[in-house]
Amino acid sequence: MALVPLQLPAGQYRNGTDLQSQGRWRDGSLVRWHEGAMMPVGGWRQRGSVDIDGVVRGMISWRDNSQSRYLALGTHSKLYVMEEDNDVFDITPAGFTSGRVDASVNSGYGGGLYGQETYGSPRQDATTLLDPTTWSLDTWGEYLVGCSTDDGKLYEWQLDTATAAAAISNAPTSNTSLVVTEERFIFALGAGGDPRKVQWCDRENNTSWTPATTNEAGDIILQTSGEIMSGVRTRGETVILTTNDCHVARYQGPPYVYGFERVGTSCGLIGHKAVASVDAGVIWMGAHGFHSYSGGAVQDLPSEVSDYVFTSINRDQLTKISAVVNSKWREIWWFYPSGDSTECDRYVAYDYAENIWMTGNIDRTSGTDAATFRQPMWIDPDGILYEHEIGNQYGSETVFAESGPIMIGTGDNVMQATKLIPDEKTQGEVTATFKTRFYPNGTETSHGPFTMANPTSVRFTGRQVRMRINGTTNSDWRVGIMRLDANQGGRR
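The structure corresponding to this sequence follows.
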């Protein structure tokens, strides 16, 4: 008998065929890797009771000058603010134009070409897709500023819960989004209805938008064939992403105020909220892959799960994709709707410190990182707000990881396993199930689940085996390198 180490690298690999993921973790949910060991992500608990209208697609948390804490939430029809005692206030501006909860296709009269296409076949790209409404939210000093993609006005809220947010005087309208630069200019993106226009106010004066020799207000039309989607701050620059490319704005002072440079092509943003800025740079999801910018030029970001993610996204609801930062674990999570789901029900996460990819199931639409509040705050489609990375309760979700094929036989020989030697932080906090096959596309036989003992008696035979680890409820477990006690049998 020989001990066969089940030593799998950290992270998931889910590109290509099943056999291509041999010797790697292939599937999983709500697990991460830290210092070589697999562990569950933190659980969650409900934070207060948020009674809101619509689905939240934009959140931000911040402190005012007196250290009071706030959380702003934007839906297709409302803007809310929550104080630290969980009281929620409707601060929707007067005259606000509501948008859409879901993306919709103009499939009515005039929405397509009469007599074209075969009945029952997918239609060509000849109709207009109306995106769901999202919010860009930022802070102007201690005040909240925001813009809804459908309403298009720039609003400011000055911390009085009895007073609604109000349109910023003299600001352009029909905008796509906004971002506040490190130099304290507000950039109106897609300004005035021009999908390529960036317009900014005077420095420290968000009511002065007309350029003059006495101020630093200005505007520019980006040289791009795409339309502006979003803007984010990064170290010393402001990154502006379109549907096709990436531009950066750098402050250079009067008379031009800002200089703009295109730093990437064929790297457009998949949805308004699918970008995050972290110490490692700006990282975002594109239409068919991931990209990053940390100075110089945009880089494609290889992903070991991109094949799975981009073939499972509901492409009619792309603008619902939302990126959130979990800085404690150096992760970015993207929530996205999969298959026929019209709402976000899955995630793909990237550990940018260790270059590890993870996927899983979770129904969240937006969120904010820990900093203002002690824990990350994420919200589900029903408007239930949760504190995350706390405890080990996961609602109805299952915490697990499953490997790709592990080749335990050599050549045409098979392996016969009789014992499992566990490697856990605390023995008995996970169960193991083994699934065996003799050929990559052969019938799979399941064995277990086995509760861990030292050693654990198992009995199965196969040329390749898949291992599944399930965590127990309310347990902060760790799993290292399991070993199988097995011998090599004859051919099959």
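The two ends are 20 Å apart (CA to CA).
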